[in-house]
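Handout, section 4.2: multi-component inputs.
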Amino acid sequence: MKQPLLSVADLYIKFSLRGRVLTAIRGASLDLYAGETLAIVGESGSGKTVLTKSFVGMLDANGWVDAGFIRFAGQDLAKYRGDGQWRTIRGKKIAMVFQDPMTALNPLRTVELHTPLRGMAAKDRAIELLSQVGIALPEQRYHQYPHEFSGGMRQRVVIAIAMSCSPQILICDEPTTALDVTIQAQILDLIRRLQTEYNLTVIYITHDLGVVANVASRVAVMYAGEIVECGTSREIFYNAQHPYTWALLSSLPQLGIKGQPLFSIRGTPPNLFAEIKGDAYAPRNSYALEIDFVKRPPCFQVSPTHYARTWLLDPRAPKVEPPATIKHLRAKFVEGALCK
Amino acid sequence: MEEQALFVLAERDVADAERSGYSDYSYWGSTIRVFMKNYAAVFCLGLLIVLLVFTMVQPYLPAQRDPNEIHLSQETFRQLRNVRPGAEFWFGTNSIGQDLWARIWSGTRTSLGIGIAVASWNVLIGIIVGTLWGYVRKLERVLTEVYNVLDNIPSTIIMTLIAYMLRPSISTMVIAMGVTGWVPVSRFIRTQVIIIRDREYNLASRCLGTSTGRIITRNILPYLVSVIMLRFALAIPGAIASEVFLTYIGLGLPLHIPSLGNLINEGRQLMMIPVMRYQLIFPSVVVSLITISFYVMGNAFSDAADPRNHV
Amino acid sequence: MQVSKEVLMEVKNLRVEFKGGSKKPFVAVDDISFKIYRGETFGLVGESGSGKTSIGRAMVRINEAAGGEILFKGQRINGLISKELDREVTQKIQMIFQDPMASLNERAKVDYIVAEGLYNTKAYQSEAERKAMVSQALLAVGLLPEFASRFPHEFSGGQRQRIGVARALVMQPEFIIADEPISSLDVSIRAQVLNLLAELQQQRNLTYMFIAHDLSVVRFITDRVAVINRGQLVELADTEDLFANPLHPYTRSLLSAVPIPDPALEQAKVIIPYDPQSHDYAVHKPSWVEVTPKHFVLGNATEIQEYRQRLA
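Output:
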């Protein structure tokens, strides 16, 4: 078994909001292996951003790691306190790229001043980085302000900044949501290229399953602060086990038939201030078992790389077929398995 | 194992999931609740109410003296000048033998009256002009020009000029401070309006044919409640400070109308004599209490009125 | 869907400008023409900054048209129009906005938000009737009438978007412009809103203009699509026709980039880049040509020739 580069176990992250405690992450466990691309999928509020922010100590001031550990390079990041400690990790070992490049750049500084490097060698390095992220004429661009760049170019600059300290892990939080599809493809290609060049490990946070299909080698599906299913990209797309993953896949308009209603998840995500009993997804789940309302499901192993938190995988559970709409995605999996 | 029995598909109405978190939310109710949680602000509010009520009832309390009466010694018939605070005169007397206790409460009454009147006027006019300036595009050019003219005349000059021309009185003070006092308020409101006027919910109202007046009262102003309240709360001590300033340059109220400005001005002249400093300290403490209280309360209220804090 | 040949909405040579101070006005769209038939869902697809939102906003008259005409049932509705027509158009043409977090008045109760249009048109006799109309609109979008007494911030994104739909519905519109109505919603919520729009269209014979950048959604919901690039229409066709036979290089590029939620297909996908310089319009100006019935494309004579050959 490969040794994980970063390992999260039973992590709880809480926030205190006006005297009440919100549990944003509820017992998430996740391993990240060197060189892979992990996509974390989930709705807003599912905790995907909070989870990754805890890897770089960027939780908001009212948030804290309540339990569990984040093991990285022989250290437990969950025990880190204060910026002094975090500075050895943040940006240097683990860097982050955000959704909106404009908020990540200071509008009053030229690109030159955004790079954390100084001196002549630094300039050369910065220009080299800019050309590596695909910015034409980097010597001139180097002296320009963020507003002189298009959205896609700004995101490239942000990526160049993130790469400037040669991190091991790059976390991309919805890096292409604000961009047009054609630009989106270019940015994804760029990250892929950097990944092979620098042997980067990349975590994508996204809600776009198209992006996931494009980049991910492994996928973790999050719901209400826990990872409900995790597996290789193929396992998630072609052999999903959790009803929430089924629902996500079957509500895609790409799989819809014109003139017929799309599958839709009813209801709203649970209130994270309240204590959640049993399976958080149960009230919205049309495949829910009675036990889902009573007891939290454990992780069931489907394959060495694939696990899901659903009682449906318990041997005592009734046999449930996934919805018909995702069948043809599944058919491909069977086909692929036969070819092997 | 009894768990076994639970492995059956649950027969529950999935539509129930739609009925999430019912609550009796009311905007003002939540505003007050959040405000009440800020103890410092509640304390300041209490202090201000006590102060206000006390200035109102003080003259009717027993054993109170007239603020303008000059007290004479029974034996010598000389003025009881600069008597130090004691059992007879709680806050002492001033340089011509008037009771400082009575003068301070009378002065606070006058000054608070001036402050509230001026602040209400300035904020009211500021809101009207500011929203029209910010929202009605046809008026933008004209009002910007008017603003430029008014803003380029230093308000101190206008204030002194008016105080100089008219006879010193409370209404003169109010007019002097109200003539241009609304100008910065209107500019502030205009900026706030411009920030929110093109938000989607306002476009939506325009699509529905909502009139400009209704958009202003239902869409724009409710969003500005918190900033307006802060502005109003700060305008009151601001006006009191202006009154102190006008008195300081000699254009204040006549001496027979005690005001905090008058009292501080009198006290200031005795500042260098340590034993008489009480004449400056008492009114200054009152001004400070009023200013700090309004400031703390205004900030707390503006936070409380922001629905993002109503969680 | 009963798509008739009745033209409900027509845009002729529309031009929208934005004046930025003393500088030359910025032209958002120029010379845009298209027709929308009663009962159909017309898609308008383009990237950010293409001008698609400006067209939609000109049609609901939030933006002024700097040139050209907008016709509703054959009557011009831009520029100066009579009070009666203005009232009719306000009622009959409604809009659904992109961001449900920004498009509802946070300080008003759902009751007021949904009834806002009613207050303006006075389309009710009594307070009881108004309340009933609000309840009906809420039920129509799958919300409970008791929600009327709550404030928007108590609702999730999908619910808020449905409140936005209810607000438009209560006006009894004939034509609804939906400006990216689902792009800021979570994936799991998008289907709810799409289904709702489709259902309402069937029940009430509504006509939609669906503005979007996400082609997979457009393919699912629209009958005809127009592709816009840098303020100009480049192609317009029946949806299936456009997806099967994209002609303009920009359309082809856009289609090639659509994300596919399937790792095998997505990773095998080849993106066709679009180079605006590839058109040689120096000598031969492009024109708007119907290449095959109902399939329009922008191109000069040589290009049109080429497109025809490709289809043959």
